[in-house]
Specification:
247 residues, alpha/beta, six-stranded mixed beta sheet, four-stranded antiparallel beta sheet, globular
């Protein structure tokens, strides 16, 4: 990896005597699709909050898009995109209003917003729906729109927190085609998922267990290492002895 956009060294987040994130180290390259996996309680959410500039670590080092997680959180937020299964768009705003709002938050100029909004709506095939409330869209369309909004400002990294939860397999596959396009353009994709077939689509995967990164490699290499036929088997082998049940 020549250009490293995420670097973590012994990153730790401690609450009293409890280490939610326990000295994790990894690097993620430019344009890489990096799967961040772990059972409930593994520490994924806590680690992602630190990397998104929403929480301070207790110790260790990390940079995101070249910015320090202790001193430059606001710059991190400006250089990343974020999409969550739980909240990414405002249902009571139209498609166009959502695009304009989030693009403005990320600092895109008004002329650029206007020009690129039309292109985005055309690409998604939503010309007739542009002035309709997002709340009326099917879930699959919401998710595809939310991803498009998350990368609208052309961030260096986009964080996707279980982005395809609840959508059908065809829509999931279409969503991953959008991820591939973003990665091909140079955007790094940092994604959490509970679908192990989606883990197969990642360039590399890390698997957290009880706050630590227990394995990190390509899906092919991990399956070979654990003599497994699928990522489901790899995940089960690592996560079956986990002691935690919530972050």
């Amino acid at each position: 990896m020549e250009n490293k956009v995420i670097i973590c060294k012994d990153l730790t987040k401690q609450f009293g005597d409890f280490k939610a994130v326990d000295s994790i180290s990894f690097e993620v390259g430019e344009g890489e699709i990096f799967g961040f996996l772990g059972a409930n309680g593994a520490g994924k959410t806590t680690a992602m909050r630190i990397l998104c500039g929403l929480s301070y670590p207790s110790s260790g080092q990390a940079t995101v898009a070249g910015f320090d997680v202790y001193r430059q959180q606001e710059k991190i937020k400006k250089n990343i995109g974020y999409m969550s299964q739980k909240f990414s768009l405002y249902d009571n705003l139209t498609i166009l209003e959502n695009i304009e709002f989030f693009a403005g938050v990320y600092g895109v100029s008004r002329p650029e917003i206007k020009e690129r909004s039309n292109d985005l709506i055309s690409t998604l095939g939503l010309q007739k729906e542009a002035k309709k409330l997002v709340g009326g869209l099917p879930l699959g369309w919401k998710q595809k729109l939310a991803f498009s909004v998350a990368v609208f400002h052309r961030p260096k990294i986009v964080f996707l927190d279980e982005p395809t939860g609840g959508v059908d397999p065809i829509t999931r596959r279409q969503f991953w085609e959008m991820i591939y396009e973003a990665a091909a353009s140079g955007i790094t994709v940092f994604v959490t998922t509970h679908y192990m077939d989606e883990a197969e689509y990642c360039d590399r995967i890390s698997i957290m267990v009880d706050g630590r990164v227990d394995a990190i490699d390509s899906p092919t290499a991990l399956k070979k290492r654990f003599n497994a036929a699928s990522m489901d088997e790899v995940f089960y082998e690592l996560a079956r002895n986990a002691k935690r049940t919530s972050d």
